[in-house]
Amino acid sequence: MNNMITIGLLGMGTVGASVVKILNNNTNDILQKVGVPVKIKKIMVRQLDKVRSIDVDAEFTTDIDDIINDKEIDIIVEVMGGIIPAKDYIIKALAAGKHVVTANKDVVAKYGQEIFEVAEKSKVDFLFEASVAGGIPIIRPLKQCLAANRISEVMGIINGTTNFMLTKMTNEGLDFDSVLAEAQAKGYAEADPTADVGGFDAARKIAILASIAFGSRVSIDDVYVEGITTISTEDINYAKELGYVIKLLAIAKDDERGIDVRVHPAFIPSKHPLASVHDVFNAIYIKGDAVGETMFYGRGAGGMPTASAVVADIIDVARNIIHNANSRILCTCYTQKSFCPVQNTESPYYIRLLVADKPGVLAAIAGAFGAQQVSLHSVIQKRKVNTSSELVLITYQVSDANLRLAINTIMGMSVVNKVSSVIRVEAENFA
Ligand code: NAP
After folding, report:
1. Mean pLDDT throughout 207-235?
2. CATH number for region 139-298
3. What pLDDT is recorded for position 383?
4. 3 state DSSP class of 256
């Protein structure tokens, strides 16, 4: 019987320092919840002489073996980030019989399967609640609270930086470059913002969520990704006028066509629950056959919200240690389903075009769409731009393949000066 749970912490940056803070602030509550004290014994960092924002009664080291070979350490908490060397340290720790808690979506999305195999062999826990949507409980609800359901859809706003940017563009009419500069100044976006604005951060997270929701491995390479870099203030304004908002959505669906996993900007009706998720907040909407629709909302990043999920995982592992119940819930991918190629996915589309300002143009364009079975739900002739007219179209439900064929034809028409935007419309039933 353990009379203490001992932790080795890898990393004491934004999240690591908050883990220390929560364990310090809530020591007594955590003791009551676990039954024995939970204490950090060693912390691995890169620079030993760096001034730390918080005091901690633990030994600092730069050597992973100091932690992995310490027989008193039960749980290794990886909050250093990146793939190298974090992935190797996680695998080494699990192989040595340590339980591991991580916040690292990059490692989980890319190497989840390999890591679970080592954890199963060693009969230890591997928990990663903080790797998706920071403080929002979502992994454990999917694995446990919703385990009775067949999940058909997971749709979410799971990147706070882009949601902050799109909210600013919508509410204040600012353009992409100025909201990106503001997001960088506030520390929401990195100096190289590609992972966020290119949709790759959300893609890693939806790969993790889809794997758990559908019980079938989805890797980052299976996710179709489009970012928000081409979204303009014109599109934001037209969305508003038509009763929509533009959000960067991460979508995973499982139906008779296979698993469809995508990240892209989309028009969603302004009455949809995800439309009212603003700023850096995240939300995840889930459809299950028994529960119906559920939504999880909260802060998707930040030291304390993320550490809230990390410490909850620590408490879970600690309880398992006390009750000798570790490795009860590991990999939940019990099958491998086929994927639905993006060309076969269907949705209505918003299209913005600049066309010659003369009679018969609209009929020619409608004919080119019709030749690829793309029917137009609504056509709005908007402002003049120099000598061209701007057309805004919303299609009925159409396959991605047919839409692309139609757009290719239209781009080659002499009366079409520019196809400015093509954006999917989600959660709208224009069948
Ligand atoms: P961070 O502030 O950059 O801190 C990283 C820590 O790890 C630092 O203490 C650093 O040491 C240490 N470290 C990095 N590489 C190391 C190496 N090779 N050897 C030894 N120590 C090393 O990172 P963070 O923001 O806390 O993020 C940590 C993890 O949480 C990442 O996986 C991230 O994706 C995830 N996460 C973060 C957030 C968030 O809001 N920040 C939200 C969700 C998930 P020094 O202090 O000596 O430099």
Report:
1. 96
2. 3.30.360.10
3. 80
4. coil
Buried b or exposed e, range 356-395, using 16+ CB within 10 angstroms: bbeeebbeebeebbeebebebeeeeeeeeeeebbbbbbbb
* Dist. CA 12 → ligand 1 center (Å): 7
Residue 430 has pLDDT above 80, yes or no: no
In tens, the pLDDT along 41-96 reads: 999 999 999 999 899 999 999 999 999 999 999 999 999 999 999 999 999 999 99
- For 132, 192, 305, the CA distances from 18, given in Å and listed in that order, are 17, 25, 9
342-425 in CATH: which number? 3.30.70.260
pLDDT of residue 189: 86
pTM: 0.95
Q: How many residues does the chain have?
A: 431
Cβ 377 vs Cβ 431: under 8 Å? no
Ligand 1 atom 16: residue of nearest CA: 46
Determine the Cα–Cα distance for residues 92 and 117; give it in Å rounded to an integer: 12
The CA-to-CA distance between both ends of the chain, in Å, stands at 61
In angstroms, rounded to a whole number, what is the distance separating the alpha carbons of residues 223 and 205?
10
Residue with the smallest CA separation from ligand 1 atom 48 is 46
- Residue 263's Cβ-count burial label (10 Å; 0-12, 13-18, 19+) is buried
- Residue 69 buriedness (CB in 10 A; 0-12 / 13-18 / 19+): exposed
Provide the Cα torsion 114, 116, 120, 121; round to 10°. Answer: 20
Cis peptide before 85 (omega within 30 of 0): yes
List pocket residues of ligand 1, CB cut-off 6 Å: 11-16, 44-47, 50, 79-81, 85, 103-105, 130, 134, 301-302, 306
9-27 residue pLDDT tens: 999 999 999 999 999 999 9
User: What residue ranges do the domains of the chain occupy?
Assistant: 5-134+303-322, 139-298, 342-425
Residue 190 has pLDDT above 90, yes or no: no
Nearest CA residue ID for atom 3, ligand 1: 13
The residues assigned a catalytic role are 205
**Tens digits of residue pLDDT in 354-386:** 999 988 999 999 999 999 999 999 998 778 888
Q: How far is the CA of 332 from the centre of ligand 1 (A)?
A: 27
**Amino acid 191: pLDDT:** 87
Q: Separation of 81 CA from ligand 1 center, angstroms?
A: 5
Average pLDDT, the chain: 95
Q: Which CATH number fits domain 5-134+303-322: 3.30.10.10, 3.30.540.10, 3.40.50.720, 3.30.420.340?
A: 3.40.50.720
